[in-house]
Amino acid sequence: MEKLLQIGDLTAEKGQKVSGEYKVAGTDLTVPVTLINGVGEGKTFLLTAGVHPDEYPGIQAALELKEELQPEMIDGAVVIVPMVNYSGTVQKFGYKLPADGKNMNKVFPGSPDGSPAEKLAWAIHTDFHGVCDYNIDLHSGGEEEDMEPLIFFSMIGGEEQEKVSHAMAAQTGVTYLVRSSSSNGEYGAASTKGLPSFLLERGGQGMYDAKEKDENKRDVLAVMKYLGIYRGEVAPAAVTPVDAWPAVYLEADCDGRWFPNFTHGDKVREGQVLGVIKNWMDDTVVAEYKAPFDGVVLYYTTSLSIKKGGALVAYGKLDW
Ligand SMILES: [Zn+2]
Q1: What's the 51 CA to ligand 1 centre distance in angstroms?
Q2: Who has the most CB within 10 Å: 73, 117, 218, 253?
Q3: How far apart are CA 101 and CA 115, in angstroms?
Q4: What is the pLDDT of residues 20-49, one digit of tens each?
Q5: Cα(304) to centroid of ligand 1, in Å?
Q6: Is CATH 2.60.40.1120 what the domain over 245-317 is classified as, yes or no?
Q7: CA of 187 to the centre of ligand 1 (A)
Q8: Any idea where the domains of the chain sit in the sequence?
Q9: How would residue 204 be classed by pLDDT, with cut points 50, 70 and 90?
Q10: What's the gap in Å between 192 CA and the centre of ligand 1?
């Protein structure tokens, strides 16, 4: 970490903590940011949350960490963006950006000439990914998702970077680690900029849960400790994560009623039926979804009504 940490109009001298609003160029959007420039030398860690503005345990974990972390606890620096989609969170706008109705998790790396969501993504990608060395993006499951605590770690930055991302993920207390080739989310974009990175999912159904929030905080601090950035002690995790990949993401072939046969964390044998779609007007099964290999249900959609192309279930390979 160089002496001065600077992002947008915000600057933090060595040993200083600064909070303020980052203005997204070409839009009315602002994003709350906290810069913690540590007293010691080290790398710069980026914590993001609220890319999906209705995923609360991650947002609240980041909000508490920005209050609790002090420069005296840090070698290097920490940049915290607790609500990437700030307007969406305060306006209670579901999972999209109010300004253009886009899902921020699908628009990275964005564009300086695009819609507000694309400009916001581009700003994160250039001004934040450009000055940081590592990234964790906290999510908490969607409003129609019930899921295992899990991590998607990026494989798109090459073998060496992937090893670091996986080692970071192994410090956490989630149940499963899944390799990801996604590039249109925040952590994938970070990976293309050279940052070992992962997306941590814990929670779901639009709920705020204090225990999940505390587990998120522990996991973030454990990773920062592993990277030599956090000086404090971190309690051991209650769970040791297990690799579960490749993962398949089954989508609906037609409209109808979705009936999953398993809950998240259930282990399933190859060929077992994960769920079916039935007609609305009678009990005819119009689509059936079988496990492609022995594995585990990572998450599934909990709504009865399903539209063609909608997510049904995510399933990871596991030897058991
Ligand atoms: Zn999310």
Answers
A1: 7
A2: 117
A3: 10
A4: 999 999 999 999 999 999 999 999 999 999
A5: 20
A6: no
A7: 12
A8: 5-242, 245-317
A9: very high
A10: 20
Model pLDDT for residues 255-307, shown as the tens digit of each residue? 999 999 999 999 999 999 999 999 999 999 999 999 999 999 999 999 999 99
How far, in Å, from the CA of 235 to the mean position of ligand 1? 26
Report how far ligand 1's centroid is from the alpha carbon of 202 (Å). Answer: 9
